[in-house]
Design goal:
The chain is of the alpha/beta class. The protein has two domains: about 5-175, L-asparaginase, N-terminal domain (Rossmann fold); about 190-320, Rossmann fold, CATH 3.40.50. It has helices spanning about 30-40, 65-80, 95-105, 130-140, 215-225, 245-255, 280-285, 295-310, 315-320, and strands at about 5-15, 20, 25, 50-60, 85-90, 115-120, 150-155, 155-160, 165, 175, 205-210, 230-235, 260-265, 290. It has a six-stranded mixed β-sheet with strand order 4-1-5-6-7-8. β13, α7 and β14 (about 290) form a beta-alpha-beta unit. It starts with 6 loop residues before the first strand and ends in an 8-residue tail after the last helix. One of its GO terms (molecular function) is asparaginase activity. It comes from Pseudomonas parafulva. Pfam families: Asparaginase, Asparaginase_C.
């Protein structure tokens, strides 16, 4: 850990830099000059040296997709390896902020610099906005040594990149880090094919909550679209309709043809332990692997990073069961 001397601010869009248009708020360029103008009149402006790069295109984060994660990853790696930046602050919209923090946690494994993400619930310049507080608070984090890896800063809190979720749609303290119920074996040292230098490609992933009335036909239709990985949000400790043989057969057939099947809990503080109930054991027997206490964002980002690296489903499952950066 060391003090930051050459920070990159990567502006991806989001509410923090939005301006009013005839259709409503939309991402706008020129945020660097707005930042510098604001800091010029502040008595206690952050002192860290920074430069700003705008991602093209700028996004409302509701439009965030896997290729945008890869573009962010490429921009961050280039900034560190080619332009000698020793830290990166990502400005991002809040709708998918936790998803991007989790995805980048796995896409940047082994990158030896701190990566921090922040955003705001109201645009900079709007009356009563939280934008400048979050931005200045995030910049001040770099006044002190930070550990390498991805973290999220919001409403005065520094959160683990793979444990954060957006819990509130309007409050300024929209994000919280969910507790870990148990820890898995940690991977050290990290193999090269899981690190930040490993090329990634897009992966066809799907998320489905278990609910009373879920049918095999629902999953058949979804899996028939070429899904490579399915994240099933189960009840409680990892249970589901285990007396529905057709549904179990659908899951088993998908796993046999190479689809990765992962189970997490629908409960915000849930943890999948298949052996607690017979209903969970039958899901495991159908081919599901446990996501432990991982959040939806972390589980999805981890599946993307593993399958996107070209791992087959057996190898992806082996690495999924291990702790790569504190996600489990």
């Amino acid at each position: 850990m060391r003090a930051v001397k050459n920070l990159l601010v990567l502006y991806t869009g989001g509410t923090i830099g939005m301006l009013e248009t005839p259709e409503g708020l939309a991402p706008s360029g020129g945020f660097e000059s707005r930042m510098r103008d604001h800091f010029a009149v502040m008595a206690d402006a952050p002192e860290v040296t920074w430069t700003l790069q705008e991602l093209d295109p700028l996004l409302d984060s509701a439009n965030m997709q896997q290729h945008n994660w890869l573009a962010m990853r490429d921009a961050i790696v280039d900034a560190v390896r080619v332009r000698d930046h020793d830290a990166v602050l990502v400005l991002h919209g809040t709708d998918t902020l936790a998803y991007s923090a989790a995805a980048l946690s796995f896409l940047l494994l082994g990158l030896p610099v701190p990566i921090l993400l922040t955003g705001s619930m109201l645009p900079a310049g709007a009356p009563g906005s939280d934008a400048w507080d979050n931005l200045c608070g995030a910049l001040r984090q770099f006044d002190h040594p930070l550990e390498a890896g991805v973290q999220l800063y919001f409403a005065g809190k520094l959160l683990h990149g793979c444990r954060a979720s957006k819990l509130r749609s309007e409050a300024f303290d929209a994000f919280a880090a969910l507790p870990r119920h148990r820890q898995s074996e940690h991977v050290a040292p990290l193999p090269a094919h899981l690190g930040y230098q490993q090329p990634r490609q897009r992966v066809n992933l799907a998320v489905v909550p278990v609910f009373p009335g879920l049918q095999a036909g629902h999953l058949d239709a979804l899996l028939g679209s070429g899904v490579q990985g399915l994240l099933l949000e189960c009840y409680g400790s990892g249970t589901g309709p285990s007396d529905d043989q057709a549904l179990l057969d659908t899951l088993r057939a998908a796993r046999e043809r190479g689809v990765m099947l992962v189970a997490i809990s629908q409960c915000p503080e849930g943890d999948v332990v298949f052996d607690t109930y017979a209903a969970g054991s039958r899901l495991r027997a159908a081919g599901l692997v446990s996501g432990g206490g991982m959040t939806r964002e972390a589980a999805l980002g981890k599946m993307f990073a593993l399958l996107g690296a070209g791992l087959d489903v057996d190898e992806a499952e082996q690495w999924f069961a291990l702790d790569l950066c504190g996600e489990r």
